[in-house]
């Protein structure tokens, strides 16, 4: 239940690559240079820490009516890779007139589309029986920027150079059915590297909502881009076969005072070897109280990052703890980073075993006071931490970040309701979707074994609304045992067994877990051994532990900002009161 992973994706709502076909074509067409004059062409790759996430080949043509952009690509962050194709038509001022993206997912064909209307741009989304739509009310200065289409930035730059798109504009994000404020600054001179080459170019700095993106041109051609928020890098593989990185001068490299000393640690969990980072205070005066950080759901590494999303939330918590004299251990989940195993097949029991192994490894460190070790669980980790503490009375305290007292099945259903509400679904569509979700939850709760133990026919028999593609997507999704163990568990039972101090932090802008779960946790704790409990429900805090002043959003917002200081301050104050003062 991490901000990077909605559990209902690909089941009821589908992946956020959906929509309604517009215009006379059912599929985007391949570029035909006879349709117009070639303006630009190239091949882009998007990478994160060297891992290829997306590839796209594009052609931009000038026609008598305006411009047409056609591209094909693959999303490699998914498994198997998802083929994409798209076509966007623009008028002579680079204003989008129509758009169609088709994705061939394991659940079947899904599409996103848009069309120009008087006074705005209409966006439509469709997957299976679900149809969502929205209209962006903006007559001019609108830029279409699909999350999976790098070449849209080629058109954005063409529009900026021509003065057709101003330095302030509205960015249409089709997958989110949203329009966000956009700004552009530049161009400024910039140095960048490709392999051993040091090259010169110009940079535009684009801001879409709270997301910062740097676009780099060379000889009038977009050759590279950096998404500072997601930690991703894109480049034209033909122009820059050696990759791409922007040069930073000494003035750009902030000198952060060292508050902790990191060291690599490896430990065994059953037959697996897991890897992590032990962070110790820099003063060397241990033994120290210590914290074990427990991840949210999905393929999350020790710092809280997943493919396509770089949050570094857990690293920031570790650094804040070290600054006040608290050691910590954070580790890569099984099948992620330097840890062995298979993330996709991991059950909840597997993850609990990994946490218990990490706890044992932390306690035997000579710099750690084994009697003062606390658990800090975020999202799914806030489900796991009370179980580990209930089964191990020597745990000294528990911190629950964005946790819940209700089962994951109940939280998942709430997520579906919130998504439907935000999408403006009709009562009829909402009733259909929730009925399907209830059938899905009922199947998981009464299931046995794993998805591979069920045929597509058996799944469709239990859930008649499933298409053949959706049934295949289920079989390739999260481990059935992981879902079943979470859906049938009673988190309140574990909370009632806790007798150690507990800190609870929830956010009012959390779209993964209701803010009201904080008080539910307090109530459950009071019905058991009634430990000392501190509950904070922070206004303008989202599931990624970031300050989020706008309305709640399904988008992973403000990741380029540090963890909200209120969260770190609350954790530090609670830790000092119980384990340092």
Describe the fold and architecture.
It is globular and about 75 Å long. Helices cover 24% and strands 34% of the residues. The strands form two sheets. It has a 16-stranded mixed sheet that branches. It has an eight-stranded mixed sheet with strand order 17-18-20-19-21-22-23-24, with helices on both faces. 51% of the residues are buried. It has twelve helices and 24 strands. It folds into three domains: 33-251, outer membrane lipoprotein receptor (LolB), chain A, CATH 2.50.20; 260-407 and 489-579, Rossmann fold (3-Layer(aba) Sandwich), CATH 3.40.50.1820; 418-486, no CATH class. Helix 5 runs antiparallel to helix 6 (427-446), helix 6 (427-446) crosses helix 9 and helix 7 (456-462) crosses helix 8 (468-475). The chain starts with 36 loop residues before the first strand and ends with a helix. Strand 12 and strand 13 form a beta hairpin. By secondary structure, the chain is α+β, with helices and mostly antiparallel strands.
- Main β sheet profile: 16 strands, mixed
- Which radius of gyration do the C-alpha atoms yield? 25 Å
Helix vs. strand class: alpha+beta
The second-level CATH architecture of the largest domain is 3-Layer(aba) Sandwich
Average pLDDT, rounded to a whole number, is 87
CATH topological fold name of the largest domain = Rossmann fold
| Strand segment count | 24
> Would you state the CATH class of the largest domain?
Alpha Beta
Distance between the termini: 34 Å
Query: What proportion of the residues is helical, as a percent range?
Result: 10-25%
| Tally of individual helices | 12
Low-confidence segments, ≥5 residues, pLDDT <50? 1-31, 250-257
Tally of distinct domains? 3
Spatial shape: globular
CATH H-level superfamily title of the largest domain: Alpha/Beta hydrolase fold, catalytic domain
Strand content: 25-35%
